[in-house]
Each structure stands twice: as C-alpha cells, then as structure tokens.
Amino acid sequence: MKNDATTRPQANQAPVRLSKGDFVTVLRKLLQDEAKAGKSSVDVRAANLHTEVGVYPARGHSMPTCCTVMYEEMQPGDEILLTPPGGKGATLLVRYKFPR
Question: Domain residues of the chain, as ranges?
C-alpha cells in the first residue's frame, strides 16, 4: 500500500470520521489487486490499511471501524496472525487467502 502525503490530510488537521464503507472499498480493492497479481495470499495490518484510507495515527482515528471491517471481510481459510489486546488495534494482522 502506498501513502501519498500530498493527497492526505495532515495529522494536525481536524479529524475526519471515516466510514465502514471507506475501509471496505480500500480493502476489497487491495485484495482484488493482489489476487490479479497471482498471489496466493496477502497479509494486511490494520495500521497500514487505516493509513491508506485516512491519516493514522491522528486524533479521532477510526481504528475500531477499520478492525471490524478486517474481521468481517474474512472468509473460510483466512487467518488472524496477530490479535492486539482487546481484539481491535493497529497491530491486528490478517492473512487473506486467494481465491476468494
């Protein structure tokens, strides 16, 4: 995932509440791109996904929503590689397997 600082709000700007749909769109696009590239799986860390969708870390972040989407997008065969304390946090790491 790339993070283009020129198009992202800066950390000192007012927080923007990201929606569940924002995370779903970016995660599904990532999974689609990796599958098209012929990969057998892709590991997604919550901090990286959140940064791709919107600035993180920042005041008013949407990490709980990001993690909820990551869990909800899991299918049989996918694996949770790292669960943060409480189940939702920047270190959540999920391996999504292909085909989906």
Answer: 20-97
Whole-prediction pTM:
0.83
Measured distance CA(49)–CA(79) in Å, rounded: 17
Report the interhelical angle of 20-36 vs 63-72 (nearest 10°): 50
pLDDT digits (tens, 9 = 90+) for 31-69: 999 999 999 999 999 999 999 998 888 888 899 999 999
Cα-only R_g, the chain: 13
Ramachandran sector of residue 4 (left: φ over 0; alpha: ψ -120 to 50; beta: rest): beta
Q: Which residues contact 13 (CB under 8 A, 6 or more apart)?
A: 55, 58
